[in-house]
Each structure stands twice: as C-alpha cells, then as structure tokens.
Write a structure and sequence with these properties.
alpha/beta; Rossmann fold; globular; 625 residues; seven-stranded mixed beta sheet; Pyruvate-ferredoxin Oxidoreductase, domain 3
C-alpha cells in the first residue's frame, strides 16, 4: 500500500475538494477506542492550519462501561471554521462510528445528507444486540436513506497494515484502529499528518513498537482515502480569513485555563498558591494540572474528603497563603459548613465549582448550571458570598485571576463557577502579555499600634490580613458570633445583626469595582437574551443569526452573579421582553424577577447537554412572532 508523504495534503486532489466555511465532525466509539485522543489530534492539526476550533468531548461516567453498549460510548465533536465560531456546533456533518452503538446513538443528530463512516468489522451479531438492533442497519437501505454511507473494515485493514509487527498481539494491533480512522479523516478533510506523527514520537518515544504501529495505521488510513473511489469528494476548510489579534495561540480547555489563571494570580500577588481538594469529576484535572507546576511555588494537597479539603484551605489562608479548592456540586454541599466558617472569619480563599448534572451523584460527566442558588444560599444563616462565572473555556483564565483578586481585596471567600462543558471543551487562546495583567496588591499588617482583628478598610470593609506570629498582632478568630472591630465572641442580638449587615455590605461593595456590562446588539429593542456561564457561545451565535434575519434582539452575558452589576437594572428596562436560557429550571430567571421589575421568559434544559444554537433561535422566533 502506497504511503503518502507525511507533510503533504494531497495537492493533486485539492482541486476535487469541496471548499467549506465550517464543518462539524463527531468521532464516537467505545470508551476504549481512543475517541478522545483521535478528536484531540484532529483538532490540534486543524488549529495548526489556522482554523478556528471549538470542541465538545462527551464520555461515560463509568470507568469502563460494558463494551459495545450505549452506556459505554465516548464521543468527541469538533467544529472547524474559517471564521469566528462560538460552539462545537449543533449537528455533525460527518460521523465516524466505531461500532453499532455509536451509530444508534448519534445518527439522529447527523445533518441530512451527512457522511457516515462506520467500522463494519464491529457490526457483529453480539454488538448489534448490545446496541438494540435486530438486524444489521448497514444492510437496510431505508435506515440510512439520505446519508452518504462508507463501510470501512477498519479492524481488518489495521491488522493488515501491522501484519509483520510480530511483537504485537491482534488485541494490541486493534488498539491502533483509531489511528487508521484518524488518517482517513485527515485525507477526507485535506489535513497533513505532521502534527500527529510528531505527537506519536513524543508520547510513545520510549516504546518504539507503539510509535511504529500508530504511524503505520495513520498512514494506512490516509492511503486508503487516496486509493478508494467510494467518497464523492473531499472537504477543505481554509485558514481563518477574518481579522484575529496577532500573537501566539494555543488550544486550551476550561480546566487548563483555571490552572494557569490560579498560578498567574499567585505570581501577581507574590504569594504561595496552596490548593487543597478531593478528586471529583469534572474538577479533578485542576488538581492534576497544579500538581505539575510546583516550580511556581504551588503546593497541592489531595485531601481524604471534601471537609478536610475546605479545612486545609482555611488553614492555609489563615497562615497567609493564596488558597484555593475546587469541587463539583456534591462536594460543594459537603464544604458548606467550612465555607460559613471562612465567611465569619473573613478569610480570602477561592472555591471553584465545576458544575455537573445532578442531584446527588447524578450525571458526573455531563454538564449543568444548577448550582447557582446552592452557592448563593446553600449555607445556614445569612452568609452572602461573591459569585462569579466564566463564559468560555479560555475566559476561565481571566475569571480565576478575578476570583483571587476579589478574595484578597475584600477579605472574603469567593465562588468561581464553571461547568462540565467549559471544563472539558477547548478553543484557541491568545497567550496574554503577563506584564499587562495588574498586580494583586496584598498588604499584611505588621504595625501593632491601634490594631484590632476586625477593624475595616473604609472603601471595601475588608479586615486586616495578619500572618500568625507577627509580633504584637496576636488575635483570635472562629465561627462563633462576633463583636465588630474587636472580634470578641458576642451573643448580643445587636452585635449579631450588625455583623451580618456588615458582611453583606462588604459583598455588595464588590460591585463598586465592576466594569460596565457589554451589550451585543441594539441598546434597546424588542428582546434581550441574557445568560451566564457556558451558555455564552450558543446565545451569541443564536442572537447573531436572529439579527441577520432582521430581529430586534440583543444579548448580555453576566460574569458577576453576586453582587450583580450596578447597571443591569437599567439595561433590562430598555427591552420589551427578556429571555434567559439556562441549563437548570430557571434559577437566574427567578433572581432577576425577584430583584427587577421585569417579566422574564425562561428557556430551560436539564439533559446534561449544552444548548444547541437552533434551540435558542427557535425560542427567539417564538417570542418575536
């Protein structure tokens, strides 16, 4: 079988390629089929070529679900474009299905006329039964009518390409079929193989037989695309033609961005970063990422449970470190008592909540936005806390810094909300000029003259942050009711009410430091679509589409949820109707209606999946018709 040069993209066939502005591709198979790795490499290559990208990995909660079943599917969707995009796409144009279950679960999502590439070797009687098929759907013309079907014996052809690698068993050779599928995808979309070949060398360099096997399989898949006559045409997505800011870009996920943001914040504050957490999906990669960055004065601690995790960061904050913990909904619930202790002690720390589907254990690997009311009110007593939320994967970097800045400026715990979609999805990120990021000023009081533990800054109401052991500044803190200024234990009713109101006012004054809200679209009109968190991409794309159709619609996305920005009320009043799409049953909608004299229309979804653009477009059209 002829092997094409690794660095070429088949220029002789380029004229046959169908030029497209964007395309959505989905890879799906068993969780052991390497779909995440395949999608990663396809995405990385496309990013190197200058395409805008947005990805959405989707994988099971079980460590190893039964092979061949719907529950065991792992998927990776990527949207490639020659211009700016905001989501991983509504529906794939191309589906690569490694087994019958992948076809059964994903065919309904495919665009009409889409391309289906299946590993026909996997369509055995047993696998068909596991996927719920009574007969082979590949032999049923009516089942796949309207789609361009390609039956490729991926397993057989992979084994043939690796036939003389006697040191590998057939089972080991079969693990390379994802590389064969990737090579075919590279040919189909006119992508070079250089980036992936270099990845194999770097990833498996100490195991040369693995490098050789994957390299052969990748090239064999590409060569199959070149020699087969089954495809009607290739597809080519040119590099971005719109104007993008100059600089160095890298692909980043939300969790990776949180890691880099926290380290940057600690460096800007000239502080040790202490991170204490208990592993939980989908927040665990933050612990893993920070553990690899100890050279930046990062200290990581894997606690035995969530209560120990929050206790560790309270202790680290009291000792003078910039301290952070992260979890998801179930773990945040367990941290609630510790959070209240930090609120009463008025210590600066950050809690990252990577939201997932619930309640209870719920949908550990799926996304949701249902923890907003929990982080606002899910503690005993009156215990206000600043809450902010990132809108995109890349923005998690900025919001991690913002959370740390608020925490130390106002001497308070802060919640940073992301979600499973942001945590695992990826997009291009322009590496920032670190010199342009403002320092995080921290002053530890050392002068004992006139010192009181709860004396306050006039602007922020923050109390002093004193490092234990500072001569003459010994002080006592704890969770019991307090007297202001002195911090002495007090059960006086007036003291209790005064402290509650003071802490609430301290949080409210965070709004004094917030920038004006951005509105995309007309300053006033028929409809304002307002959102928060990971719904940003779908909302922005839907509003752009509605505006192109002549609708009087604008959008506004909230990053600060407590306190809300001061100009929000005026903005809401300028539109006849307000639509709030949320991946919950209407939590922000309820908050807005309780505070502002507006009628809010909710668009709510709790399926563990992000919004599709068309869902929001349909609701906009319904409201404005």
């Amino acid at each position: 079988m002829a092997e094409p040069p690794a660095s070429e993209s088949s220029a002789v066939n380029a004229e046959m390629a169908r030029l497209m502005d964007s395309v959505v591709v989905r890879f799906s198979g068993d969780s052991g089929d390497g779909m995440q790795l395949t999608g990663d490499q396809f995405t990385n290559t496309s990013a190197v070529l200058g395409n805008d990208i947005s990805t959405f990995p989707d994988f099971p909660a079980e460590i190893r679900a039964p092979a061949g079943t719907l529950a065991g599917l792992s998927g990776f969707q990527v949207n490639l474009a020659a211009s700016d995009i905001y989501t991983a796409g509504d529906a794939p144009l191309v589906l690569v299905a490694m087994n019958p279950a992948a076809l059964a679960a994903n065919l309904a999502d495919l665009e009409p006329g889409g391309v289906v590439i299946v590993n026909e070797d996997a369509f055995t009687r047993n696998n068909l039964r596991k996927a719920g098929y009574d007969a082979n759907p590949l032999d049923d013309e009516s089942y796949l009518q309207g789609y361009e079907l390609h039956r490729v014996p991926l397993t057989t052809m992979t084994r043939a390409a690796l036939d003389d690698l006697d040191e590998l068993s057939n089972q080991q050779k079969d693990l390379c079929k994802n590389a064969f599928a990737l090579g075919l995808a590279f040919w189909l979309f006119d992508r070079p193989m250089d980036t992936t070949l270099a990845f194999y060398q770097e990833k498996f360099g100490k195991r040369p037989q693995v490098v050789e096997a994957n390299t052969r399989a990748l090239k064999a898949g590409y060569a199959f695309g070149e020699t087969t006559e089954g495809f009607q045409s290739r597809m080519s997505i040119p590099s971005r033609t719109d104007v993008v800011p100059p600089g160095t870009y890298r692909r980043i996920t939300g969790n990776e961005a949180v890691v880099l943001g926290l380290v940057t914040a600690a460096q800007k504050a000239n502080k040790t970063l202490f991170y204490g957490s208990y592993p939980i999906t989908p927040a665990s990669p933050i612990l893993e990422g920070l553990a690899a960055l100890k050279r930046f004065d990062v200290r990581t601690f894997q606690a035995e449970d969530e209560i120990a995790a929050i206790g560790s960061v309270i202790g680290a904050s009291f000792a003078g470190a910039l301290s952070v913990t992260a979890s998801s909904g179930p773990g945040v619930s367990l941290k609630s008592e510790g959070m209240n202790l930090a609120i009463v002690m008025e210590l600066p720390l950050v809690v990252v909540n990577v939201q997932r589907g619930g309640p209870s254990t719920g949908l550990p690997t799926k996304t949701e936005q249902a923890d907003l009311l929990s982080v606002l009110y899910g503690r005993n007593g009156e215990s206000p806390i600043p809450v902010i939320a990132a809108a995109t994967a890349a923005e998690c970097f900025e919001m991690a810094i913002e959370a740390c800045r608020i925490a130390v400026r106002h001497m308070t715990p802060v919640f940073l909300l992301t979600d499973g979609y942001l945590a695992n999805s990826s997009e291009p990120w322009l590496l920032p000029d670190l010199d342009l990021i403002e320092p995080i000023d921290i002053e530890h009081r050392t002068d004992p003259v006139g010192y009181q533990p709860y004396m306050r800054d006039e602007a922020t109401l923050a109390r002093p942050w004193v490092v234990p052991g500072t001569p003459g500044l010994e002080h006592r803190v704890g969770g019991l009711g307090k007297q202001d200024v002195t911090g002495n234990v007090s059960y006086d009713p007036q003291d209790n009410e005064h402290m509650i109101k003071t802490r609430a006012e301290k949080v409210a004054r965070v709004a004094d430091f917030l920038p004006p809200l951005d509105v995309f679209g007309p300053d006033q009109g028929d409809l304002l679509v307002i959102g928060w968190g990971g719904t940003y991409g779908a909302i922005r794309a839907a509003v752009e589409q509605a505006q192109a159709e002549g609708r009087s619609v604008a959008s506004c996305h909230l990053r600060h949820l407590n306190p809300l920005p001061k100009d929000l009320g005026k903005i809401l009043s300028r539109y006849r109707q307000v639509l709030v799409p949320e991946l919950n049953m209407g939590q922000l909608s309820m908050l807005l209606q309780a505070r502002y004299p507006v009628r809010v229309i909710g668009l709510n979804k709790v399926q563990g999946q992000p919004f599709r653009i068309r869902e929001i477009v349909a609701k906009i059209n319904e409201i404005l018709t």
